[in-house]
Description:
Blueprint (H helix, E strand, L loop, with lengths): L2 H16 L12 E8 L4 H20 L6 E5 L7 E8 L2 H12 L2 H11 L10 E7 L32 H12 L8
Antiparallel strand pairs: 1-3, 1-4, 2-3
Helix pairs in contact: 1-3, 2-4
Amino acid sequence: xxxxxxxxxxxxxxxxxxxxxxxxxxxxxxxxxxxxxxxxxxxxxxxxxxxxxxxxxxxxxxxxxxxxxxxxxxxxxxxxxxxxxxxxxxxxxxxxxxxxxxxxxxxxxxxxxxxxxxxxxxxxxxxxxxxxxxxxxxxxxxxxxxxxxxxxxxxxxxxxxxxxxxxxxxxxxxxxxxxxxxxx
Length: 184
């Protein structure tokens, strides 16, 4: 067994223990992947933006991942950075995404220049990926609506932290209680 196959199969097994194997209803992901692209000021920002717009997000949509949340951090300790929120219907979707992108000829063509950047001129400083399970009370990703919503843009991503497991569970119960509003 090759290393990549081992990692894929062991990752799927670990994720399956946490996430139901059945696909989620349309628009209700079982797993959220949150990616953070660390950038440096300069050409990295524009190149990543073009890659996301012209290559990656269209390929993710073709792979059945939609809507994709995209967030830019322009000020503060995390700047510059771009975050992507990817809704996966199953844990297998997370593990198989790289292979599905590799099999997408349109993606490979659109992403060729970005993916071929040399180590001396990298496309980003670092990328991190976290897997999340959505709250049962608010399982869908919904782009903002109304007169101030821009087409194709997500307005806000909130992260909640708790000092302990018990406090975290209480916070989740608060959102999942009968008639509780979504956390966003």
